[in-house]
Amino acid sequence: MTRRLEGKPVADSRNAATRAAIAARGDQRAPSLVSVHRDIDSPFRFYLKRQAKAAAEVGVVFRDEAVGDAAHPEALTARLAALGRDPAVDAVLVEHPLPPPFDFPAAVGELPLPKDVDGVSPGNLGRLVAQRPVQVPAVALAAVAIARHYELPIEGEPVAVVGRSETVGLPLALLLASRAPRMNATVTLVHSRSRDLAGALSRARTVFSCVGRPGLLDRSNVPPGAHVVDVGLSSVPDPTRPGGSRSAGDANPEALEGWADSLTPVPGGVGPVTVAELMASATRAWSWATGRESPP
Amino acid sequence: MTRRLEGKPVADSRNAATRAAIAARGDQRAPSLVSVHRDIDSPFRFYLKRQAKAAAEVGVVFRDEAVGDAAHPEALTARLAALGRDPAVDAVLVEHPLPPPFDFPAAVGELPLPKDVDGVSPGNLGRLVAQRPVQVPAVALAAVAIARHYELPIEGEPVAVVGRSETVGLPLALLLASRAPRMNATVTLVHSRSRDLAGALSRARTVFSCVGRPGLLDRSNVPPGAHVVDVGLSSVPDPTRPGGSRSAGDANPEALEGWADSLTPVPGGVGPVTVAELMASATRAWSWATGRESPP
Fold first, then answer.
1. Does the ipTM surpass 0.85?
2. pLDDT of res. B79
3. Residue B245: beta bridge partners?
4. Which of A48, A289, B252, B281 has the most crowded CB, counting CB atoms within 10 A?
5. Which B residues 172-231 touch A at CB under 8 Å?
6. Which of A168, A139, A161, A174 lies closest to B191, judged by CA?
7. Rounded Cα distance, A84 and A110, in Å
8. Whole-prediction pTM value?
9. In a domain, B16, yes or no
């Protein structure tokens, strides 16, 4: 039987630590997180609701801000520069991916490194390569937190990261390959141009999938006995559900049942931990901004 | 018989292109490269001589600068900040690795991205992750140039990078895995904490080794028929040579003869191409600084 790796206990323990850090603040103001988005129907809107809920639970002051339409990408850059200077704001999250004409790296690069709470600016990505991370993408931290919590084989072991996006797959691969405690994985980076997916995964003891293609992983490509951390998130039609759709990961859970050693569910796996890691990162930014700790 | 992949034809062709770009400069000043180093006996001193020679050959104005001793690391940072502001200097190379108490990332981070000619600042490394490179480490460009010149299997193929240093192995892995033309490799990043070197390399069609441990690669770990790009550079004792030592790569060429499909020699492989790529990068920085081209 394939073990189901629930995100909830990992998120609960992370949120408890964040809540305790904030509760001990004395007369300091609470951490402040601003989430900036286009005001359109997108997967990010669902994520926004989760952010607001998690923030209320741990004691982060949360606000979302809609920026103008896609015709004025410079408005986003200007707004982020202003938030970057605002001493009352500790952490800023920007909806991504953002399609052209938005210049996402330039826009988010307006934020000081600690305020770029999701660690997706070129400056933060470079600090990750340089083994001096300031902020790291919450989704990468979440995937790693689940792997650590359930003691999946990582250290010194062959692992695969499927997907090479700048904000998910690449930072996760860099984190897994880093010298950080319980990392040091032998990482294979697999992507849409990899000629032989099954071959590329064949040695992996743990597979992290960050593609966003439902059903990609099944018995034809996941090696038997592997652990699967499913970072993919897609919406698939489902007439039996209210709204007519449901969330799905990259893995086909039915196909992998009894084949994979363990699998994170979607929903309920990496997702809730990502929100918890985002709150932890916002709280870290606040600790630096209020002088409780020094940034790295 | 194992094919010997000489660096000279690759370096010659790169240098010819650089020379032509500089010769066509009209009334613009020539490119200016400053190489900053501790004034001590190190492998970098040998590299300095190569830089001066290559610069003279292609028409780059080269100068080396010794900074004070290790007790005053802030002198290095201040000097780099000044070079960063100097409009007569297009490109600055800083000796690395630099041991503590020097803060290499902070020091080189004082340079604007185009002037950080070896692409080793966190800012440039982050642009590489974000798929918007400005400057990329010359050694990574050189390894890739050799692979392209000799048409080694890269695109869509399993390749391995051995070594995860911030300035060599990681940037090379990111470049090979990128969407750049003729890249898109399925990259496995292997390092000192990888539990099973032979296993980690077993699927690789091309192995890039960036460790600096002579004799590391032999028939016990390189798969038969693989191509080996030897980026390692060490000095080994050799009483038969003037000076009592010779250069060696990570590969044991005798052991791999008749086993590997091809191998870059050390010396004479990646080394000369690295110097040529450095001159090309300095010339690119000059093109940007003099307004002949726009930086990315």
1. yes
2. 92
3. B237
4. B281
5. 173-174, 177-179, 184, 186-191, 193-196, 199-200, 202-203
6. A174
7. 7
8. 0.97
9. no
